[in-house]
Specification:
two-stranded antiparallel ribbon, mainly alpha, elongated
């Protein structure tokens, strides 16, 4: 029947009259409504404000065909909850219709996740380590609340950012305006039809973009067999072109796959190969999350997972991203070892190894916990000045780099290091005296405060050897003027 055709109906006199399609539809809905409300009244149940107005139902039904145009025959045939949504809407139960629409959306999201990579999705979507342990199979998806399902799908690229915001609004309305909870919110037919179209467009029929497809292929290959050298080289190029957020998500997912106890040896080998190639494109926020997850494993006594997490962090020299409580302990141990190695007879051989560890822990920003700053600066100045007999050639570039990372506060402590009796004793030796001059040149640009600048000039103008600085009355006055 076309839009221009009319529907026959019998008049009171028995004559056949013709009605326009819109009117015929409204009459049909009204007849059904009267029947249902009459039955409710017979049962002694409320009949006021139970069903949505007829014109709103008709608006929904009129708009449904357009909304469904994005679905092919196969997709329509399996969309049972969309059918229930339309049925509920046609009888005036819009709150129930919204519930059914959300059920269809959740089912489709879960299908997409299962078809992508379930373990990878769990590693990204669930931030709680304890809850993540419960998520292994497709059946476990019901344990993940809708908000996490939706945000996890967005993070791995199964839905777009725009789609996420639109669908998340529907989720919000489902929670506060549907039959899921008692409420007084009024929905319209056009709203429901628009939300139906949004869910179809942004979830059910949204195609994977090229990046998402490539990541899926990578995940399949990582878990299938050992990757060859050519594939690893191609993947490194792919990482370079990854959008920042996708690089972070992939890092989070691979970290989760690696730290899942019981992983196949070839999968772990593949991730170890890929991890250093991906790391340069991962944000600091995501790097710190990796360190935090290690801290949680340790706090929860998940030793096997902690060992795996530490392997990845150590593989990329990521010690600076460890949680503060772990970093304080490890940095304190590294500083102490640095001094012990420097004082030992084979220091030239061992200093580079410990210096590299120290550099890894403080990171590019030279971040040192406040409680260790004085010990760190004193030790670094000590080893930089050498033992007076020779220089650890391989370690010296690392010391120069670490000193270049000094903050103004750390540089101020280095400037006044001559006041320490042990360092002053070092400064009696010619080699250490030359290194002291080099240290002053390195920290010059970092000395910003007026008292510190005055001390620096006084130290440079001092006519004696630097080991005598701490005994000079004029230098002492400059030292006394410095902030404690």
């Amino acid at each position: 029947m076309t839009e221009s055709e009319s529907l026959p109906a019998a008049s009171a006199s028995g004559e056949v009259v013709r009605r326009e399609p819109r009117q015929a539809a409204l009459d049909g809905l009204r007849d059904f409504q009267d029947l249902i409300l009459s039955r409710l009244g017979d049962l002694g149940l409320p009949t006021e404000d139970v069903l949505v107005a007829l014109n709103q139902r008709h608006a929904l039904l009129q708009s449904t065909e357009h909304a469904l145009s994005g679905l092919d025959e196969e997709q329509r045939a399996r969309s049972a909850y969309i059918a229930k949504m339309i049925m509920a809407g046609s009888v005036g139960l819009f709150d129930a219709a919204l519930n059914y629409l959300w059920d269809e959306t959740v089912i489709e999201l879960r299908k997409r996740v299962i078809g992508y990579d379930l373990s990878y999705f769990y590693a990204v979507a669930e931030k709680s380590e304890s809850r993540r342990k419960e998520l292994k199979t497709a059946e476990d998806l019901v344990k993940l609340d809708d908000a996490k399902l939706l945000s996890g799908a967005r993070e791995i690229g199964l839905i777009s950012d725009v789609g996420y915001h639109q669908v998340d609004h529907i989720r919000f309305m489902r929670n506060y305006a549907s039959a899921a909870h008692p409420n007084q919110v009024t929905l319209t037919g056009l709203q429901l039809a628009d939300w139906l179209e949004t869910c179809i467009r942004e979830v059910i029929t949204l195609p994977h973009n090229n990046v998402v497809a490539e990541i899926k292929k990578l995940l399949v290959n990582v878990q299938a067999d050992r990757l060859d050298t050519n594939y690893l080289a191609q993947t490194a190029v792919f990482f370079k072109d990854l959008p920042g957020e996708q690089a972070d998500t992939l890092a989070t997912g691979l970290f989760g796959l690696y730290t899942t106890v019981g992983g196949e040896p070839h999968t772990l080998d593949n991730i170890r190969d890929l991890w250093p190639k991906l790391w340069p494109y991962v944000s600091d926020d995501t790097r710190f999350v990796a360190g935090t997850r290690l801290g949680r494993f340790m706090a929860n006594a998940d030793q096997a997972q902690a060992v795996l997490a530490r392997q990845l962090i150590d593989l990329v020299q990521g010690g600076s991203y460890l949680p503060q409580e772990i970093k304080v302990t490890e940095l304190s141990d590294a500083i102490e070892e640095m001094l012990n190695v420097h004082l030992a007879w084979d220091n030239f051989y061992n200093e580079p190894r410990v210096a590299r560890r120290l550099a890894e822990l403080v990171g590019e920003q030279g971040s040192v916990p406040e409680s260790l700053v004085r010990q760190y600066v004193k030790t670094l100045v000590t080893v930089f000045l050498t033992n007076g007999h020779g220089e650890a050639v391989a370690a010296n570039p690392i010391y120069l780099d670490l000193i270049s990372r000094f903050s103004p506060g750390q540089a101020s402590l280095a400037l006044r290091a001559f006041a320490n009796a042990e360092i002053s004793s070092q400064l009696q030796r010619p080699l250490s005296q030359r290194k002291w001059d080099g240290l002053l040149n390195l920290i010059d640009i970092k000395i910003t405060g007026r008292p510190e600048r005055e001390l620096l000039e006084a130290v440079r103008e001092f006519s004696g050897t630097p080991d005598k600085l701490r005994l000079d009355s004029g230098i002492k006055r400059y030292l006394a003027a410095l902030p404690k």
